[in-house]
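Final report, Chapter 2: Outcomes

The project's central promise was a pipeline that accepts a single protein chain and returns its three-dimensional structure in a standardized token representation, suitable for archiving and comparison. That pipeline is now operational. To close this chapter, we reproduce one record exactly as it appears in the project archive, with the input sequence first and the structure output second.
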Amino acid sequence: MLQYHDREWGVPAHSDRKHFEVLILSGVQAGLNWSLVLNKREGYRRAFDKFDPEKVARYSERQIQKLLSDPEIIRNRMKVEAAIRNARAFLKVQEEFGKFDSYCWRFVDGRPKLNRWKTTRQIPARSLESEKLSKDLKDRGFNFVGPTVAYAYMQAIGMVNDHTVDCFRYREITREFTNAKKRGAIVQRSFMKITSPSRSFGNQGG
């Protein structure tokens, strides 16, 4: 759990495979302890084809039965079936937006929300953004994506930085985001220079 906190939790993610993994595991967490789910993550990766949504979306009743007999995952039929339905809904979002990443980050205007909590007791279980995300996901056919689950997902993939301000990871993640933002601005300026009409070419004849 400590390793997960120090290396993964709150780090902005932009891989659709990672989004699907965290979305499914966050739903599995509903009513359970996150450490229990995290301990079974490798089992889930094996059982759910490394969280490939295209493969999961095609799971049959026979595969559901196989999953329900797998001791390395949470053997809850409702959550297993929800994962399959969510895979199908996930693919529809990808079809509409190109990437699920493009879809979900809109709910925080494309950048992590940097909270400034002094104690863990201040960290909320949900937010206005998670309520909006939850509603939209439900409208699109997702299950086990209530506001609390949606917020846990947003925390995990770095849409919000909920490390307390005295935590070394708060500073590191904030700095990484700031540096990435600067690199993006530099690349954009360089691209604009390359694509702008050059004076040396403007006066060339045939």
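Archive annotation: The CA atoms of residues 68 and 75 lie 5 Å apart.
This record, like all others produced under the grant, will remain available to the consortium after the project formally closes.
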